[in-house]
## 1
Amino acid sequence: MSRLALLLALSTVLLASAASGQARLVLREAVLPNQETARDTTGWEAATLDGDPIRLGNVLLPLRLGDVRGVSASVDPNVSQPAVALELNRRARLRFAAITKQRIGEAIALVLDGRVLMAPTVQTQIPDGRLQITGGFTLAEAEDLAS
């Protein structure tokens, strides 16, 4: 997949979010099937990630155009998949740092238009406001987003 296609797709999503006032890219509470949790997930939304079930809770951080300082695309050498890197502005970075500090050992889901892109388990606080999205993107999906 080309870098340009990924950048255009993500830029289009963020611009559409700004125009509509609704964030299309959000971080949400998440519980994976193999994860023990003391949280009551009654009423949480059922979704899937790579065909596996996942439960989604509250929106923790909606990401709108102004929340993102920079976007870049590359191929993640660890998994040989296209990746999109986001750098958050100060306000979003501080909120993201607080979220990751509070949720060490828990999953958070990155959700785009209702589709779970990834749901990593937070290992440590992330104070620098840098996120990397790998979601098995295809060129066709990027073109659909851009259109």
## 2
Amino acid sequence: GRGRNFCRVGKRELQERLSLSERHLNRILDGLVRKGAIRALHRNNDGTLYRVRSPEEIEPGDRASLVGEVAALARAVGWARS
């Protein structure tokens, strides 16, 4: 992300980087969307443009369960350092 809170990435790339099945990846992404950690802004042939909320932007009750999920996703797509 290089300091940005958004990134365009395709599901195939996420599957490869995270070593997940399509079904498992979809469940994770749906959960992150439901919890408000990510939001799909735009989709095209290059992938989906996601806006990722920082832990500070997430409600305190949801924050603890999401921090690990968001951090793993961010590392996988290059939004954060490993």
## 3
Amino acid sequence: MEISRKAILEPRKLWWEENGIFNPAVTEIKGRVYLLYRAVGRDHLSRFGLAMSDNGEDFIRLEEPVFEGEEDNPYERLGVEDPRAVQIGRDIFITYTAASVHPTATLPQFPDQTP
């Protein structure tokens, strides 16, 4: 068996993913592979992109992010990272890490210092 050295996904020249893509979460639904990935844009914030494949090698990607941290949420101000996906029954649960410049213990005390 020969192993392909070709990257499945590479960053595109899109504002929201041109600085890198990482940490995919993969699940298969009815024979189609869905890959949720972290993308870092020119603003250095992380968002999630989505790619789909019918054969697990050739992926079609959406042109816009499918999820990003809320601008007014201090817990997600620097973006979202490390998506995980698990299917339980008919539901798919997605978890992620939210990034902030402040320790969580200081957020309620100093909300005006959140970027």
## 4
Amino acid sequence: MPPGIPPLYPMGVGQIVDASIKLYRQHWRMLIRIVAIPLAVLEFLRALLLQHYVTTGVSLSPFTPQTSNSTAANLGPVLSITFAFILIQYIVVTPFLTAAVARASADLYLNRPVSVRDIYRAAMKRFWPILGALILVGLASLGGFFLLIVPGIIFAVRLVIAPVPVILEGAGPGRALRRSWNLSRGNFWRMVGLGLLVGILEEIVAGIVSIIPGIVAHFAGPVGWVISGAGAAAGVILVTPFHTIALVLLYFDLRIRKEGFDLTILAQQLGG
């Protein structure tokens, strides 16, 4: 058990956030190493390509004059690049990093040795099931939003921990959604509160981290995009592990409340 972090027990929203922060603070170097490479490469390539098309004709500022020809010629590629990177983010990077950080969080909670290579290997083994689970969650939530919005919110909240059983229980996509739905029964508002609190903390941290690079980039001239991109990437890299840690601890909490989950069971599931 990591120092300062209590053994598994039913936790309130504040306690889950507090335990997530402590686990992150104690192992931030390892967690950052896990997420940094994929996110940094993705952000750099996106910024590089967008900068090319922006500087060749499209200004993002409403105060900069533009010609209709240059705007029309470059707006299409800019939108295409943005869409492509969003697709890569949610179909490749997000599933992989969710799997990696979830496995690392569980191993760190058990005080097991963790290496980036082993975590990446474990994440790759579960990549397709976790991608399938995330797609099913997305489709269920999207379908619910078409049914007067409220069902979509319910699906999004109650299925939010579906990726965790894929990693820690070896569940397939369908079983993972059923596990999330059953475990979250009776805990909807707790999960909403946790999601809002985690989201607010992430936005604050990412905003603070990107402020200084953004100011420097404004005065840096042609190379400003590099500084701005680095600041944006740093913010994303810093907050990405925290979100998944909170999901893993929420999963622990729900299983404790419903199934008597403890560290022995966790160790057995991870190959004890």
